[in-house]
Write a structure and sequence with these properties.
mainly beta, Thrombin, subunit H, 49% strand
Length: 88
């Protein structure tokens, strides 16, 4: 949630993108090149960071949701398709 507005983040698989959708207007409000085939994503509880699982490149992209820019890529195992955020 940003400034009282809720957003949904959608990964596109083969297109390599993440789209941000404003739930109040059902309009796309931004997009980012996330990586090679982002399949699954996970949002941190504070809504500031989005992680995408990029299967073919064997990495996870870290995106800043305020700017929709990739701030890091984390190398992981082969062909993963999901991300989970665990909290205590």
């Amino acid at each position: 949630m940003e400034n009282g507005k809720w957003k949904i983040y959608v990964t596109t698989g083969r297109l390599g993108k993440v789209f941000a959708i404003d739930t109040a207007t059902d309009q796309v409000v931004g997009s980012a090149d996330a990586g090679a085939r982002p399949w699954g994503d996970a949002l941190t509880p504070d809504g500031k960071t989005l992680y995408t699982a990029n299967g073919p490149s064997n990495d996870v992209s870290v995106l800043d949701t305020a700017t929709l820019r990739v701030t890091a890529k984390i190398k992981v195992g082969d062909r993963h398709c999901g991300v989970a955020i665990l909290s205590r």
